[in-house]
Write a structure and sequence with these properties.
single chain, 472 residues, alpha+beta, Outer membrane efflux proteins (OEP), 4 strands, elongated
Length: 472
């Protein structure tokens, strides 16, 4: 036993001094290719819209309540949290591989000579692999990086969930606004049809004009069930995000009631590398793949795995005597090294290194691609804000002029100056202008939400900690 203790002490002392071969991780050069966002005219500062917590970013109490419910119940988020627990367990397994292992052993060995048929043994065995070239440390490093990647994945799922709940809520408000427009237009066209029918009975309007009015009314009424179905699909999607089965969702207000900041600070592009959890996940996956190269390289070395094994137990030619403490059971203590010596592996070691390097290269390319995608998302959202703002301004003028045009055409029709076709065309123009205006306002609000997410907003570390503690 003294010898065993000495060997373990020497192994523990030698471990920190041993080198870990393979590349050490460093963030790739020039991974962020720009210093400013495309399409931002004002000077860019470090302050960012994404610095706000989601409960401060939107300012809609009903939406805040829905997001809170989603964070408590959404299954995608719970799956991501459970995956973090899985990688925590794997990280413990990887760390444990660097320490001593104790196992219970028992065996039966047939006897080739003598009167006894076999000998029996029962005892304990201890082994400890000395990580001379860092294979186990690189494997632990890789697993640790995957654990961090799983945590960032949970943050990314949370950010996506917050954005999806917000955009779905905006879309639900938009559906209600469209239903309101359709309802008002139907009432307007019903009144027009009643007027034409009255004039037809008095011989002022023709039957053709009555049919035109009826056709226009039927066309507008046909929009009602389509929009109602779209609303059902939207509220079902919202309920799914909340973790609930399909049911009615009562909305309150219009898309215009959702406050959007007039001037959004965007920060600096380099901040995306640390603020966006999906980019942090990709970088941690690259870190893991880089450590995997070291694992593959270390596995090629002869004498790489040096294990110390010991046995302390009993040996007896009779199974019954093994437990009664009487002869012929014999105590046995043995200690000795065991070596893993891959002398020739037909290119397996080299192939593993090549495959590991290829995986690391793929991870680096995925990371660079993720950075480009994040820049694209920010630029798209910024452009959408500006262009949709201009579009909304023009459509507000369009709605106002279309409403005035309809009023004038109705007056002219009552005076017999124009045909009813002119009234129908004015009604159609007003309906289209109002729907386009509502949808443009919706799209601009969605662009704000997507910009918030693109800049790295939407996740909260306290919420992540609460979620992970609930899975333990």
């Amino acid at each position: 036993m003294k010898l065993l203790r000495r060997v373990m002490v020497l192994a523990a002392a030698a471990l920190p001094a041993a080198c870990a071969i393979g590349p050490d991780y460093q963030r790739p050069d020039k991974v962020m290719p720009v210093q400013e966002y495309h399409g931002v005219l004002s000077p860019q500062q470090a302050e960012s819209y994404a610095d706000l917590d989601w409960i401060q970013a939107f300012g809609d109490p009903r939406l805040d309540e829905l997001i809170r419910i989603a964070l408590d119940n959404n299954l995608d988020l719970q799956i991501a949290a459970a995956r973090v627990e899985e990688y925590r367990g794997l990280a413990r397994v990887s760390r444990g591989a660097m320490g001593p292992q104790v196992r219970g052993t028992g065996s039966t060995v047939p006897s080739a000579v003598g009167d006894e048929d076999a000998s029996y043994s029962l005892g304990l065995a201890l082994s400890w692999e000395i990580d001379l070239f860092g294979k186990l440390r690189r494997a632990s490093e890789a697993t640790r990086a995957l654990l961090l990647a799983s945590e960032d994945n949970a943050r990314a799922v949370m950010a996506t969930l917050v954005a999806e709940v917000a955009t779905t809520w905006i879309e639900l408000l938009d559906r209600d606004a469209e239903l309101d427009i359709i309802g008002r237009t139907i009432k307007l066209q019903e009144d027009s049809l009643a007027l034409v029918q009255s004039q037809n009975r008095n011989g002022v309007a023709s039957g053709t004009e009555v049919q035109q009015a009826m056709s226009q009314l039927a066309t507008t009424r046909a929009q009602l069930p389509i929009t109602e179905q779209q609303r059902v699909e939207t509220e079902n999607r919202l309920r799914f995000l909340l973790g609930f089965p399909p049911d009615h969702v009562a909305s309150a207000g219009t898309p215009g009631a959702f406050p959007a900041p007039p001037d959004v600070p965007v920060g600096l592009p380099a901040q995306l590398l640390t603020r966006r959890p999906d980019l942090r996940r990709l970088e941690n996956e690259l870190h893991s793949a880089t450590a995997g190269v070291g694992v593959a390289q270390a596995s090629r070395f002869p004498y790489l795995s040096i294990a110390l094994t010991s046995f302390f137990g009993l040996v007896s030619p009779e199974l019954a005597r093994l437990f009664d403490g009487k002869d012929p059971a014999q105590e046995l203590f043995a200690i000795g090294p065991a070596f893993d010596m891959p002398i020739y592996t037909s290119g397996v070691g080299k192939g593993n290194v090549e495959a590991a390097r290829a995986r690391a290269r793929q991870a680096e390319l995925a990371y660079r691609q993720g950075v480009l995608q994040s820049l694209r998302e920010v630029s798209d959202s910024l452009s959408a804000q500006v262009r949709l703002g201009e579009f909304i301004a023009h459509n507000e003028e369009r709605v106002a002029s279309s409403r005035e045009l309809l009023r004038l055409q109705q007056m002219r029709y009552r005076s017999g100056v124009v045909s009813y076709l002119e009234v129908i065309d004015a009604e159609r123009q007003l309906f289209a202008a109002e729907v386009d205006l509502v949808r443009a306002r919706r799209d601009r609000l969605v662009a704000y939400v997507l910009l918030y997410r693109a800049l790295g907003g939407g996740w909260s570390q306290p919420e992540i900690d609460r979620l992970l503690s609930a899975t333990k």
